What does this fold into?
Amino acid sequence: MSNIRGRFQKDADKAAAAYSASVFIDWRLYPYDIAGSIVHARMLGKQGIISSQEAETIVDGLKAVLEEIEEGTFKFSPELEDVHMNIEAGLIEKVGEVGGKLHTARSRNDQVALDMRLFTKDAINRTVLGLKGFQEALLSLAEANKEVVMPGYTHLQRAQPVLFAHHLLAYFEMLQRDIERFSECLERVDVLPLGSGAVAGVAYDIDRDFLAKGLGFSRISRNSMDAVSDRDYIIEYEATAAICMMHLSRLAEEIILWSSAEFDFIELDDAYATGSSIMPQKKNPDIAELVRGKTGRVYGRLTALLTTMKGLPLSYNRDLQEDKEGFFDCVDTLLSSLEVFAGMLGSLRVKAESMAKAAGEGYILATDLADYLVKKGEAFRTAHDIVARLVSYAEEKGKLLNELKPAEYKKFSTRFGDDVSSITVDSSLAARDNTGGTAPKQVAAALKEAKKMIDTD
Ligand code: ARG
It folds into this structure.
């Protein structure tokens, strides 16, 4: 640490140094840090800011450090504070004093901003792949259970019959929006901050276009003060991750309900369920519960970073170091949740009969009865009223609607004919034959469309 403490009379207090060290968290940035340094060194050489021989020595040294880290022989030391200082020290150890030229025309402020942007770009690409994998799992499950009928719920009350595939495709839509949000976020991350220096830019004739090209950025930051202190892209990732986890959590909640004896719609594969330590009959949906639980953790990371950023004066402040732990955890949590949950979806058993039974029971076809009267000329409000009275009559008699005789129907409206018995779960499904509806024809088309969406991008 001697080099950055040059003007101080004493070493940092031990506790204070330990308090500010971040290498146990930010060591993960090493591939990005080294990639950035290699291109930076080449640019310095090309511009004649250092000699091309020096640039080459530095690049070789950096590659050697990378190799050591990857082999696990590199020793990260907390006394050197962060990943940047550790790598620089490793470089100087390898190539000698010339290694100290690498940091010319650069500050750790634009360096860490670069590393984080490179990390975020990778994270977004991996997340989008994970989301697509999850969408595929949804589609396979829907495809394998194309004909399965279940109750569609509102207020968690059985409302109208729907296809199970239709229910699953609702989640496909949510995830598609998540993919769009991550892709838009990627456009804003794709800006090179290197060349901003500590705050004001650098006093050397650097070539930022060369840096951008070498590091795969399509744009260059326009303002150095913003570039070193902007963490919007991390907040955007975390906010998008929070929304995405909220979606996963909703499905997790349904998996938990469906696998209960009360619903009995699905059975989880043993590989994704847990036994109870005291109740041998139990098969617990722990994975779904953990997805639901980890959602809170991702929300927390978002709130934490928003709070860290609030009230920070321009430009770089050390508070910004706090962005990493929460961000890395968000990425890890989202990626692992997507992977494990997709596996759980792929292996669960659908209890089609049990779902169909629930879809046919009770008074779930009441809307269809009202629609029947409307088609015979009744006003919808009146039809609604007639069927409501019919339902309470059936309830009193302890009967289901399809157990009532045509004569009983006719007591409530002369518009009821014998064809009222043609109202079934199947007719109810088939009737919802408009774009976005649950008619088997519509759902088959939606499945096809969804598959195309996954394949094309
Ligand atoms: N570890 C620091 C961070 O993550 C790197 C930048 C340090 N810059 C500084 N001026 N102290 O933010």
Observations:
- The CA atoms of residues 50 and 101 lie 7 Å apart.
- The first strand starts at residue 149 and ends at 154.
- The mean pLDDT is 96.
